Amino acid sequence: MEALVAVLTELGPLPKDALFVKVGERYPVTLWRLHQCLLDDRVGITEDGLIELVARGATPIEESEPARPARMAVDPAGNVFGVRLTVDKDILRGSGVVVSSWLTWQLGMRQAPMVRTFSIAGHPTPIVLKRATSAAQISSLRVLVKENGMVGGCEFVLFLRTDDSTARIEHACTPHICPAAIESARTDVRPPGASALELSP
Fold first, then answer.
1. Would the CA dihedral through 76, 74, 145, 118 be positive or negative?
2. Whole-structure pTM over 0.85, yes or no?
3. Is a pLDDT exceeding 70 seen at residue 35?
4. What gap in Å lies between CA 49 and CA 22, rounded to an integer?
């Protein structure tokens, strides 16, 4: 990204293809990554279609609408989004989880970097949704997953409300194949109830 900004700073507005060639001469980068860099909030497009810095008057470039993935849904009013996720090693160790940029696009996060937080009742740390040039990411899920009795392999749905910026999660496993239920059965502990099954894998 810095190489692209440096080229524009030095050479001024350029056609997209010429810009990509100039950046490639200075820094080894894939064409896919260069296209992603155009979403950075420092880069825009001029009236005659050249790529230029926003600081010098260019209009920011917004991402076009991505296709909605099967594991995401939104209510008819466009107020509540559901994201079905699987508990994996990244979640269990507290790392961010990459999600489709359809979610960030729908929430108006069409440039990068952008961040939006969703508060959780009873928790000081909110869910954080980030839009970078390369991907969208959700973080701060580990505590919620553990509190809801989930283990690796469990399915859950993260609900995000846009009107009050709040979030909650619901365990979404089918009971007889739920990893937490299987693990709990060994110790005769009843697992969390299954719900949020409306978002099928």
1. negative
2. no
3. yes
4. 17
